[in-house]
Specification:
This protein is an alpha/beta fold. 52% of the residues lie in helices and 12% in strands. The protein has two domains: 148 residues, Fumarate Reductase Iron-sulfur Protein, Chain B, domain 2 (Orthogonal Bundle), CATH 1.10.1060; 181 residues, NagB/RpiA/CoA transferase-like (Rossmann fold, 3-Layer(aba) Sandwich).
C-alpha cells in the first residue's frame, strides 16, 4: 500500500468512527449529565473563591519557570529522594519506562494502581499483565473502565462516558447480584470488592500531581482515598509521572493543589485528600536509629518519563503544553469533546490532547484529531493557566501539511483555490 493511501486511510478510519460515535445514545446520555454537573459546580465554586485568579497566575509562573530549569530541578529532586532512601529513574520513552517498572515489580505479583494518565500513556497495565502480574485499578472510574475492557475518556473522570445504568449492569454481572443504577449503591459494592485486596498487594503504583525538588516530596491529590491505600499498604510504592511535574519547592507544589480542583477539575473548594510523601516509611523510635518500612512501604521508586517532553520543551510555543495541570476544564467546554468524548484523543483528550498526542504518539496519530478542532478558543478561555491551545493546533496543522498529513477534501480544496481561486473549482 502506498504512503499516500495509508495517510488517506488515517482520516477515513477516524471520520468513520466519528459517525458511529455520534449515534451512541449511551454516550450522549452520560455526556449530557456530566456537562450539566460540571457547569453548575464550577459556577458555584467560582463564587466562593475570590482569590483563585492569584493562584492561577502563580501556578502559570511556577510551571513556566520550572520548564525552563527542568534539568536542574530533576537533578535536585533525584538527589533529595535518594538521600531519603528512595530511587529515581529517568525513562526516555514508554518502552524504557515499562522495562524499569517491570524489573521493580517482577512477575506473579498483585499490583494495585491509583489513577495515573502517565501509566495509560505507556500502556503499563498490559505490559505488567504480560509478565504474569495481576493489575487492579482502585480508582472507581478506572476500575469500571478496566472491567469493561474500555479506555478512559477524561483526565479527571475516566468513566464519564459510561452511564450509571451500564455501570450497574456491569457490577450486577461481577457480583452475581442485582445492583441498582444508583451511584451510592454502586460505590458501596465497589468498596466491598476492593477492601480486602489492599492488604494483599505486593506493589502499589501511583501517579503524582506535583513533585517538589527541594524536599523530594511527591504530592498526590484525590477524593476517593484509594491512593492512600495504594501508596501506604503495599511494601513497594512506584510513582510514575512525567518529568514536567517537578517544581522548585513544596510550597509551589501545594499552590497547584489550590488551582487543580476548584473550580476546574471537579468544582470543589478542595479535594478530600492531599498526600505529601517524602521518602519511604520510617521510624527512629528505638534509640533514634532510623529504620525503613514501618506501617508504610519499605521501598519507594520514582520513574520520570520523557517520551517527547524534552522535544516539546525545545519549541517556544509547544512548550506551553508542559504547563498543563490536567484539570480537564478545557474538555468540559470543548464542543468537539462534548460530541465525541474520549474519541477526540488517544491517551490525552481535547485540544491539549492533540498536542500531547503529536509528541507522545507521533504526527500520524495526531493528524485526524488536529483537523477535527474548530479553533473556537473556548479551551483557552476555560484554562486556568490560559494555555493558547488553538494557536498550538494551528502551528501543528502547518507541520502536518508540510508532511502531507491533511484530509483529502482539504487538500483538494486548497489546490482548487490555488488553481481557480475558489474551493469548489468554479470557473
Amino acid at each position: 500500500m502506498s504512503v499516500k493511501r495509508v495517510r488517506e486511510d488515517l482520516f477515513e478510519e477516524y471520520f468513520t468512527r466519528i459517525e458511529e460515535v455520534l449515534y451512541d445514545e449511551d454516550l450522549r446520555r452520560a455526556s449530557d449529565r456530566a456537562t450539566e454537573t460540571f457547569a453548575s459546580r464550577k459556577e458555584s465554586s467560582l463564587r466562593s473563591l475570590p482569590y483563585i485568579k492569584y493562584y492561577r497566575k502563580r501556578v502559570r509562573e511556577v510551571k513556566a519557570w520550572s520548564i525552563e530549569h527542568l534539568d536542574e530541578l530533576i537533578h535536585e529532586f533525584k538527589e533529595k529522594v535518594e538521600d531519603l532512601g528512595g530511587k529515581v529513574y529517568l525513562a526516555k520513552d514508554r518502552s524504557e519506562a515499562c522495562r524499569v517498572i517491570g524489573e521493580i515489580v517482577g512477575s506473579g505479583k498483585i499490583v494495585l494502581k491509583s489513577k495515573s494518565m502517565t501509566t495509560e500513556e505507556i500502556e503499563l497495565n498490559s505490559y505488567l499483565e504480560r509478565l504474569n502480574n495481576t493489575v487492579i485499578e482502585t480508582d472507581l472510574g478506572e476500575r469500571i473502565v478496566q472491567l469493561l475492557h474500555d479506555k478512559p475518556s477524561h483526565v479527571v473522570v475516566p468513566a464519564v462516558h459510561i452511564s450509571r445504568e451500564r455501570i450497574a449492569q456491569l457490577f450486577s454481572k461481577v457480583t452475581g447480584k442485582t445492583v441498582p443504577p444508583d451511584p451510592s449503591a454502586i460505590v458501596k459494592v465497589v468498596r466491598g470488592l476492593l477492601r480486602d485486596v489492599y492488604m494483599k498487594a505486593d506493589v502499589g503504583i501511583s501517579g503524582a500531581n506535583a513533585l517538589a525538588a527541594n524536599t523530594g516530596s511527591i504530592v498526590i491529590v484525590e477524593n476517593e482515598g484509594n491512593a492512600r491505600f495504594v501508596t501506604n499498604a503495599p511494601p513497594t510504592h512506584v510513582v510514575v509521572c512525567g518529568m514536567e511535574k517537578v517544581v522548585p519547592t513544596l510550597e509551589d507544589a501545594m499552590i497547584i493543589t489550590q488551582v487543580l480542583p476548584p473550580p476546574h477539575a471537579t468544582g470543589q473548594r478542595m479535594t478530600s485528600y492531599i498526600s505529601v510523601i517524602t521518602g519511604p516509611s520510617s521510624t527512629s523510635d528505638i534509640e533514634l536509629i532510623s529504620v525503613k518500612g514501618v506501617h508504610g512501604p519499605l521501598e519507594l521508586h520514582v520513574v520520570l518519563l520523557d517520551n517527547g517532553r524534552l522535544e516539546m520543551r525545545r519549541d517556544p510555543l509547544f512548550k506551553q503544553a508542559l504547563c498543563c495541570i490536567r484539570c480537564g476544564s478545557c474538555l468540559n467546554a470543548c464542543p468537539i469533546y462534548q460530541l465525541l468524548g474520549g474519541n477526540y484523543g488517544c491517551k490525552y483528550f481535547g485540544g491539549i490532547g492533540v498536542i500531547w498526542t503529536a509528541f507522545n504518539e507521533g504526527f500520524e496519530k495526531a493528524a485526524p484529531l488536529a483537523f477535527a478542532c474548530t479553533l473556537c478558543d473556548r479551551c483557552r478561555m476555560e484554562c486556568p493557566l490560559e494555555l493558547d491551545v488553538p494557536r498550538m493546533i494551528e502551528k501543528l496543522r502547518g507541520l502536518l501539511s508540510e508532511r502531507e498529513l491533511i484530509p483529502a477534501t482539504l487538500k483538494s480544496a486548497t489546490n482548487n483555490i490555488l488553481e481557480k481561486g475558489n474551493p469548489l473549482r468554479m470557473d
